[in-house]
Every structure is written in C-alpha cells, then in structure tokens.
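So, is this right?
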Amino acid sequence: MIKLLRIDDRLVHGQVALTWTPALGADCLVVANDRVAKDDFLKMTMNLAKPASAKLLIKSLTDAVTFITDERAKNLKIFILVDCIQDAAKLADELPELQSINFGGIRAKEGSRPISKAVSVNDADIASIRELLLKGINLEIRQVPTDKILLVEDTL
C-alpha cells in the first residue's frame, strides 16, 4: 500500500529518515529515479541515510511501478520518493491508487520561481501540476509531517 509519494530533490535524507518514515509507519522506501538506479555511489550514500526501520529499494521509474503493483508488495507500507514533478506525474499515470503527492523540496533552478520556502517551479512543472490537479490528485507542500499543509493550487 502506498503511504505517500514525496517530491524532494534530495531524495533520502534526515527529514525522510527521522520524521516522515516513522510518521507514515512506512516499512519500505522506494526511490524511483532512472539516474540514481544506475549510480552505485548514490545508491550507497542513500543506504547510509535510510532509517534502520525500513527497507530501501532504488529502482528506475518503470521498475518502481512493476514492484509497487506486484501482489507481493501489497502488504508493505510504501513511501515513494522522486526528485522532480515530472517523475511524480509519470508515476501518477501508472499508479491509479495514488491520491496525494507531497512537495517537500525542489531547489531553485534557472527559469523557476518559488511557490514556498522550499519549493520552486518552472513552466514545465506548472504544466505537470495542472495535469495532476485535473486528475483529482491532492498536491500539498510540507517539509515535515507537523508543518501546516499548504495546497499547491493555492500558490500558483
């Protein structure tokens, strides 16, 4: 069962390990990222940052969908991590049970503008956000579980 999909360009780090994973009761973290899935050094560093209470799987987007939709994964409490809005949108297309996406941290890049203290978006991101909203997916901004929820559509 998917507990949460979080967009955070840092993927696995302290907030994920120390606050989100226990708050969700997640026992499996799935990093869905094509680049990281091929990078042994990044895999090693994320394994060092993961919480002891959860298994960490690092998969390509396609392999993440295959794993999450497999019958054997149904009893897991899965916390999905992606590093960009476009990857979240791809997963939302493939995972109909996904009802909510958390925007945790997206650093500013050329052509982007801030919509919160930790999230910056560009025109392509906004187009993806609008598509997700049309599908009825709840989009929230929170860095940690105790933060007040800010709805993404209220920031555009």
Summary: The first strand starts at residue 2 and ends at 8.
